[in-house]
Each structure stands twice: as structure tokens, then as C-alpha cells.
Amino acid sequence: MKKPRVCVLRTDGTNCDRETGYAFERAGGDPHLVHVNQLRAGKKKLTEYQILVIPGGFSYGDDVHSGKILAVELTSFLKEQLQEFVDSGKPVLGICNGFQVLVRTGLLPAAKMGDIRTTLMHNDSGRFECRWVHLRVEDTPCIFTRGLAGRVLHFQAAHGEGKFYTDAQTLAGIEAGKQVVFRYSTSNGDPTSIYPHNPNGSLAAIAGICDPSGRVLGLMPHPERFVDLTQHPNWRRQQFHEPHGLPIFRNAVAYAQEM
Ligand SMILES: NC(=O)CC[C@H](N)C(=O)O
User: What keywords tag this UniProt record (predicted)?
Assistant: First the structure.
């Protein structure tokens, strides 16, 4: 079966592009690092790819707000191309800085460029948090977490502006639409707002959301960090058959191949 071409979008300050590309390679995809300037210059087009991922990092040095300048750049110069990619039903994944970008373009939660309803604020601790976190996977239409509902995954989180926040009406809509995909939890899967299990104080312990179709996903923790699991703090206690994040990439590749 043909390997789906994955656009791994990068710009100045992106720093998780190579491991994100590796994760898609491990999952059976064909990753390509694409600088936003190549899209702006028309040298490459999003239609050439079947999956789009915006990786983690410090795009444009996190000036103004994490992800803000790249979001304004995408909304200002690539709005039609991005909206067309999303409307065509192709999977879109934003990891950490990438999630911040998707929220600040409006592609999350509503999959509509310019419809900005939520934000990711500075952590309650007021500092950069870098730690392992447990995530409970909720039962949602998200195509990236097929088969994972109810599981408790263990990912690395590393961010300064990860606190999910929105107004009561938008939160009610996200909950009713089953768009909350990951919640910070204790090791036995109880959602929690208690630090450090919840490293940033996110509303409703939200660590990641999808759009109503389930084809656009953003999350703050890093599923692409396939660390050497024998160095994992829980290696002895938890049987790791494979990196916890790999199924997310495999599901995206499988979905793109089904299209
Ligand atoms: N690992 C990342 O992508 C970090 C995102 C962003 N730079 C922050 O600190 O919140």
C-alpha cells in the first residue's frame, strides 16, 4: 500500500520536526520537512501531501505568544490553502507548539481559519514545565486515537504556555461534541487538575482536543518522543510493548491510506 506523504511543517524555531518525521516513518508514512517559506513562495503546495503535522518547538522564539506569529503567518498568507486541506478531510496534527498554532488560527476547535475561540495560556506555575504526564484517552471520533479510548498513556510534556482555556459556552460545546481527546490524569486514569499531574492548570484537565470531524487533533504532550523505554521511570512496573505515542501516527497513516 502506498505510503502517505506527510508535510512536516517547520519554520524558524521549530525543534521537534525530525523526531516527528521519524515517528511518521516508523508508522509507515513518507515524511517531508517543509519550511513555511517554501509554501509561501509556491515552491511546494499542501495538496501534494496527505497528512499535515505542525511539530513542537519555539516558532519565532515564542515572541508575542507561543505559536502566535506562525498562526498569523498561516492565516495571512496560506488561509485558503490550509482551509482547503482541512475541508478535503485530510488528517492534521498539531503537537505542543503545533497545537498552539492550530488554536491561534481557529482550526481548533472549529476547523475554521479565523474562528478563534480558545487559547493556551502560561502555565499556572509561571515557568516552563518539562515532565512525564499521564493522559487518559477519551472516547471520541478522533481518527488519531482509534482503539485507544480508556487507555492511560505516558507522554513527555515540555511547555511554558500549555494551559487550555476558553469561555463556558465553547467548553460546553467541546464537551458535548466529544472533542476532548486527552485529559491529564493520575496513573490510574482519574482526570486531575492537581499539579504536577496536570502541569499547567488546564480547564477540565484538557491536554488535547480535536475538531468535530475528529480529523484535526492538537495536544500539548509529545507523542513523538520515542525515548529509550528502558530508561523510562516506570519501565520495571509497566510493560511497554512499543512507544506509547506510535499508535497515534499509525492511525493517521491508516486513515490517509483509506481515503
Ligand atoms: N515543546 C514545545 O513545543 C514548546 C511549545 C512552546 N514553545 C511553549 O513553551 O509552550
Answer: ATP-binding, Cytoplasm, Glutamine amidotransferase, Hydrolase, Ligase, Nucleotide-binding, Purine biosynthesis
